[in-house]
Every structure is written in C-alpha cells, then in structure tokens.
Give the backbone structure.
Amino acid sequence: EVQLVESGGGLVQPGGTLRLSCAASGFTVGSSWMYWVRQAPGKGLEWISRIAAGGGRTPDVHSATGRFTISRDDATSTLYLELNSLNTNDTAMYYCVKGHWSSGPRGQGTQVTVSS
C-alpha cells in the first residue's frame, strides 16, 4: 500500500526558510516521478516541482516557485522540498504526490503559513 506522510510545515516569517519532508512507504521514491504541490485557501492545486524516477534528469521547477528545491533520499525513501525566501503568497497546504501531480496518491499535507 502506498503511503505518503508530509511534515516540516509551520509558521514562518517572510524571508524565512523551511524544509518539508515526505516519508514514503509501499514503494521507493526513486522509482517514481514525484511531485510537490500546494493548495492555498480558496485556490486550486498548483504543482511546484517534480523529480524524475531514476537519475540523470534535472528536477523541474514551476516558474512561480523557483525559490524552492526538490530532492530525495533513496536510502530512506524520503522526498524533500526546501522553501527559501518565503512570502505570504506561499501560505498553503503542501503535499507530496506520486506519479502525476493532479491525480496521483498524496499524503495528508503539511501546512505552511508565512506571516509576520
């Protein structure tokens, strides 16, 4: 059974940094395309970044979130997202998703709130 558990969110001031984690079980993160997506209050799902299965391809980043860096640790089957230079527009629930950003299985999410 595929399970994804996000963590690392919280309240941060503008300009701050957070590192989100996504612990995967039932598969290894290196064997699948993996995405980070987010959903702000009252808005639709937005993909942030993706990393290909295997290796050799540079991760893709959405133009609006070029401040964010996706990575993974195949040994622990954990996906990461480093959020830099956060601003209030980054306030959202963040999810990791397996396979396809809008239809794949995802976790319960971790809330990121940017506020002074």
Remarks:
- The two ends are 40 Å apart (CA to CA).
- The chain has no helices and ten strands.
- The longest strand covers residues 18-25.
- The chain has a mean pLDDT of 93.
